[in-house]
Design goal:
Layout lengths: L10 E4 L9 H10 L4 E3 L2 H7 L1 H10 L3 E2 L2 E5 L8 H18 L4 E4 L4 H4 L9 H21 L4 E3 L16 H11 L7 E6 H4 L5 H8 L4 E6 L23 H10 L6 E3 L4 H4 L3 H14 L2
Parallel strand pairs: 1-2, 1-9, 2-3, 4-5, 5-6, 6-7, 7-8, 8-9
Helix pairs in contact: 1-3, 2-3, 4-6
The protein binds zinc ion (ZN).
The site of zinc ion has 4 residues, from loops.
Length: about 290
């Protein structure tokens, strides 16, 4: 396993971690101040400053991207299918412009929550089938741009509203069905927050192997968790054995960034430079 204690060259910042402290350009400038070499920006943050300006800021700062957040939210009723498809195609185009290595897919839960206004449904089986069809369709477009897609399984608590792909196994099964030749076009983004509880996680990481492991996200699970969406912990403040999970992905040959992604009302109130300093310190000691 790589030694992270001596520097933070493999730290990437998911820019949602400090989304309330500044716009994307300000976040990029802060990363430069702190010697952070990579980011994973969100589409809304890019849209706020403009795609061209965002791409220029990334280039000028010499930053890598560890992903682009996010594509997906595939589940909808029939009236919104074209909108969903086109929205995801735009995400591919933006990722290409920004120089992202992959698009992170949060696949959607039930249609009325993924794409508000859709006819309500309780049919999670259909939702999962729809997700798979939509990923296949998006892959056709993404392949022409040589943009890999990374399915992020989300904790089952999000099955209703955000993602009905909830385990590493489920995500890898989709990869095996849609990309059996392991072309690199489809893989997974593993986020410790979503996978740490899963008794099968280590065996599934072994099954994934390097060509499926496109991204690795870290934060921590606080006990008790006050808000399932926006009460994620700073690494070291919760109960996730982060090093064991990193050891497992690196044993498969993963050699990419360790991306810090913390949605937290508490951390969003802290000054930007304080948050980044803490991220760097915890990356060295806990990740
Ligand atoms: Zn994540």
């Amino acid at each position: 396993m790589r030694d992270f204690s001596v520097d933070h060259r493999w730290l990437s910042l998911n820019t949602a971690t400090v989304r309330k402290q500044g716009d994307l350009v300000e976040i990029i400038e802060a990363c430069a101040r702190h010697g952070i070499r990579a980011i994973d920006p969100w589409r809304d943050q890019v849209a706020t400053v403009g795609l061209e300006r965002a791409a220029r800021a990334v280039r000028d700062a010499g930053l890598d991207l560890s992903g682009y957040c996010r594509g997906g939210m595939f589940t909808s009723d029939a009236t919104r299918r074209t909108e969903v498809r086109d929205d995801n195609r735009r995400a591919v185009d933006e990722a290409k412009t920004l120089g992202a290595p992959c698009i992170v897919l949060v696949v959607g839960g039930l249609p009325q929550y993924s794409r508000p206004g859709s006819t309500p449904s309780k049919d999670i089986v259909s939702a999962r089938a729809q997700v798979e069809d939509a990923i296949a369709e998006m892959m056709d477009y993404a392949k022409t741009a040589k943009m890999p897609l990374a399915i992020e399984p989300l904790h089952p608590a999000y099955a209703g509203d955000r993602a009905c792909v909830n385990t590493t196994k489920q995500a890898l099964d989709i990869c095996d069905r849609l990309d059996p030749a392991r072309t690199g076009a489809l893989g997974v983004a593993l986020d410790v927050y979503h996978i740490w509880w899963d008794p099968e996680v280590l065996s599934q990481i072994s099954r994934a192997s390097k060509d499926r492991l496109l991204a690795f996200h870290v934060c921590d699970w606080l006990v008790p968790t006050k808000d399932i969406l926006n009460d994620r912990g700073m690494m070291g403040d919760g109960v996730i054995d982060i090093k064991s999970l990193r050891r497992a992905v690196e044993a498969q040959g993963f050699s990419g960034y360790s991306e810090i992604e913390i949605f937290s009302e508490a951390w969003w109130t802290r000054p930007l430079d304080d948050v980044l300093r803490t991220c760097i310190e915890r990356h060295r000691t806990v990740v």
